[in-house]
């Protein structure tokens, strides 16, 4: 590290989310410099370099890893590349942030876990940004303070706006997303583990494609539901979808022995109510960049601070492995129509931090 108070970052992936991370890393994260960007699309690299003043641009990821000015690699490429790119970045000596999901298969997720564990002096963080959203953090603190007693059931809605479907179909045709549960519900599956404080044991998942039947040809579902049995007789109900007419609907309910707590019951865009000939209208957030703008910033701040302070961040590789195990079990149950036992690898006890 040249200047030990500034973390020099190389970002791979300049798509829907990568571009937002690029702007955050370039302008909004203290003690951070966006030194390099990489994408297989040269035009994206040139545009990001020109607009954000990034000195180095690459169309080949391994070329970027040879840049000695970098301290850390930020991965926002399609999910099927995450594991390989994480392993290569760790082997080259970098701190690594990776977008979710950690991996699409258990074998690769476990391989990455080994790689992270064998580089204990390098920071690794996974992008479960909802753990940095202020409402989700507030709910966690309330639960820890006993506000609803012992949490026993979690109910989650994770619905993408229908208007994003054409873009998603394009993405899903060229990149394997892992399907509705590993790609979309994974945030809720991680939150369930975080709030309930236990791991999943078995799952039954169903789904279908009723409006965009092309999704069925991609072996994916437009709308799906999973019922999950967690340890200690705790429960989870997850609804995921990509055809939400009113916008981006992210809602979470946690039922405890003494009360219930809800986050985002009505997924409002802001505090404005429009009263006109339609009645009283509260508009809805239209996508993840809008709803979780602050969380994407705060997770990147946490990553950079963890590097500067020489500690590991709150979201760890084990969270990635266990949520992939649960997401994969949901996918398997959806594919086979059967109740599926979650493959929870041993040696993962103690993975419930208190962040
Ligand atoms: N945390 C969240 O809320 C959230 C939201 C959206 C996406 N994601 C995750 O972020 C990742 C990217 O999603 P997206 O929607 O931005 O995808 P995208 O398709 O819009 O962008 C992918 C980017 O990666 C580049 N790319 C593809 N293959 C590459 C390779 N081999 N080497 C280098 N660059 C390559 C593409 O050119 C593009 O710039 C996915 O893993 C997705 O699951 C997370």
UniProtKB/TrEMBL annotation:
Name of protein: Myo-inositol 2-dehydrogenase
Pfam families reported in the protein's UniProt record: GFO_IDH_MocA (PF01408), GFO_IDH_MocA_C3 (PF22725)
Any one GO cellular component localisation term in the record: cytoplasm
Domain of life: Bacteria
Family annotation (InterPro entries): Gfo/Idh/MocA-like_OxRdtase_N (IPR000683), GFO_IDH_MocA-like_dom (IPR055170), NAD(P)-bd_dom_sf (IPR036291)
Family recorded in the similarity comment: Belongs to the Gfo/Idh/MocA family.
GO terms for MF: nucleotide binding; oxidoreductase activity
All residue ranges annotated as the GFO/IDH/MocA-like oxidoreductase domain in the record: 137-262
Keywords, alphabetical: Oxidoreductase
Keyword Oxidoreductase carried by entry: yes
GO biological process terms on file: NADPH regeneration
The keyword Oxidoreductase is assigned to this record: yes
Domain Gfo/Idh/MocA-like oxidoreductase N-terminal as annotated: residue spans: 8-125
């Amino acid at each position: 590290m040249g200047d030990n108070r500034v973390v020099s970052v190389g970002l791979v992936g300049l798509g829907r989310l990568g571009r937002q991370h690029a702007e955050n890393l370039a302008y909004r994260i203290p003690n951070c410099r966006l030194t390099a960007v990489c994408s297989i699309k040269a035009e994206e690299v040139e545009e990001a370099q020109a607009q954000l003043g990034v000195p180095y641009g690459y169309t080949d990821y391994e070329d970027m890893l040879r840049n000695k000015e970098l301290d850390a690699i930020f991965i926002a490429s399609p999910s099927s590349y995450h594991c390989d790119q994480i392993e290569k970045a760790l082997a080259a000596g970098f701190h690594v942030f990776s977008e979710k999901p950690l991996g699409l298969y258990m074998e690769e997720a476990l391989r990455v876990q080994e790689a992270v564990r064998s580089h204990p002096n390098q920071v690794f963080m996974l992008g479960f940004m909802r753990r940095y959203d202020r409402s989700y953090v507030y709910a966690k603190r309330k639960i820890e303070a006993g506000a609803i007693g012992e949490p026993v059931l979690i109910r989650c809605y994770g619905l993408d706006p229908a208007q994003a479907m054409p873009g998603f179909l394009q993405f899903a045709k060229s990149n394997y997303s892992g399907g509705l549960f590993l790609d979309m519900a994974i945030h809720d599956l991680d939150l369930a583990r975080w709030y309930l404080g236990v791991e999943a044991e078995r799952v039954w998942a169903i789904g279908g494609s009723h409006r965009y039947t092309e999704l069925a040809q991609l072996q994916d579902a437009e709308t799906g539901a999973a019922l999950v049995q967690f340890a200690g007789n705790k429960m989870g109900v997850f609804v995921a979808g990509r055809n939400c007419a009113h916008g981006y609907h992210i809602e979470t309910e946690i039922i405890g022995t003494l009360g219930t707590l809800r986050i985002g019951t009505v997924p409002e865009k802001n505090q404005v109510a429009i009263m006109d000939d339609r009645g009283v209208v509260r508009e809805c957030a239209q996508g993840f960049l809008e709803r979780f703008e602050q969380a994407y910033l705060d997770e990147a701040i946490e990553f950079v601070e963890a590097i500067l302070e020489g500690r590991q961040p709150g979201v760890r590789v084990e969270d990635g492995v266990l949520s992939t195990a649960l997401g994969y079990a949901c996918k398997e149950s959806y594919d086979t129509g059967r109740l599926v036992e979650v493959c929870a690898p041993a040696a993962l006890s103690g993975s419930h931090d208190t962040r």
